[in-house]
Design brief:
By secondary structure, the chain is an alpha+beta fold. The chain contains five helices and four strands; from the N terminus they run E-E-H-E-E-H-H-H-H.
Length: about 100
């Protein structure tokens, strides 16, 4: 969705099945944006989703986003654990080295 007056884009992504996706949903965070309460994915889970999207395509856009997201505060143990579980550990390491 795009709110035209503010040019704010919001992606609505249905929850997928599986242990990780349930955990991701439980970790979502409530934020207030312009007086409206919204739920957003955690930084770590956004990184994992972008890695998943880039896994096959090697999308430079997704990988660049991951590099920027890695610059902020995050739960490194959670990120490493799920990257290994989701078989994205090598891709995460490549992005971290860049």
């Amino acid at each position: 969705m795009i709110h035209l007056p503010t040019v704010v884009k919001i992606d609505l992504i249905p929850r997928k099945p599986g242990e990780y996706r349930r955990t991701e949903f439980e970790r979502r965070q409530r934020v207030n944006f312009a007086g409206i309460d919204l739920w957003i994915v955690s930084r770590e889970d956004l990184i994992l989703s972008k890695l998943d999207w880039a896994r096959e395509s090697r999308s430079e856009l997704q990988l660049r986003d991951v590099r920027h997201l890695l610059e902020g505060p995050l739960d490194a143990d959670y990120l490493q654990r799920w990257a290994a579980h989701l078989e994205m550990e090598q891709l995460l390491e490549e992005v971290q080295r860049d």
